[in-house]
Amino acid sequence: MPSIHPTALVSPDAQLHDSVEVGPFAIIEDGVSLGEDCQIDSHAKICRGVIMGSKNSVGHASVIGGDPQDLTFDSNISSGVIIGNGNTFREYVTIHRSTEAGKNTIVGDGNFMMGTSHLAHDVTIGNQNVLANNAMVAGHVQMGSHIFMGGGAGYHQFIHVGDYSIIQGNGGATQDIPPYCIVHGINQLSGLNIIGLKRAGFKPEERKEIKAAYRALFQGRDTRAATLAIIAGQHWSPAAMILINSVKNPSSKGILTRSP
To answer: Which helix (H) or strand (E) element contains residue 197?
Structure first.
């Protein structure tokens, strides 16, 4: 049987693996599913429509699956949050459910969200990302994997954020952040995350091609369309193609360019 503190409120319609631990005054609503070795700390609330995999930790007073902060949202809509395995949500983290019936906000595996960080409705976030304290992700953002958000940083709604990118603390982005790149201030693209790529095990030849693609895309004098046409006739490694494709297929918000 799950270990449930006597003061916790757990719906009889929730599904908890026998290894789940639920702390004092926590609330788990109807239809929630918690997998093996999940830990729910005191005063946390897991709302209806949340499905978690295994080995997730939810910190004190966090709210997972709350209603979207959308003035047009109908709270009677049935939507949810799907969470993978091995995520850590520290104290006061908030993750909101989808605004669309039958859809979900989606969190992958191995993410670490520090205190008071936030994922809004309809966000999709990949694996092994780190969101520092008070990092803010607006609605419909698509985040990749291995991303670092500094404390107090924010992503505007509907943008795409590429793998292995970094945004500095208190920074902000209202356009797509290309994979492998660093952002400082507001919408200031400042180069490649070279140290991060080395630590992640990218081979020297891969890093060399990524640098070449970056120079062509963001530092050349040709128009973006002309540059992409030239690049299309060249051979690139799969790693470099990830960067190139992000420029070819941006969100409706467009993609950041290198700062002056």
So the answer is: helix 194-199
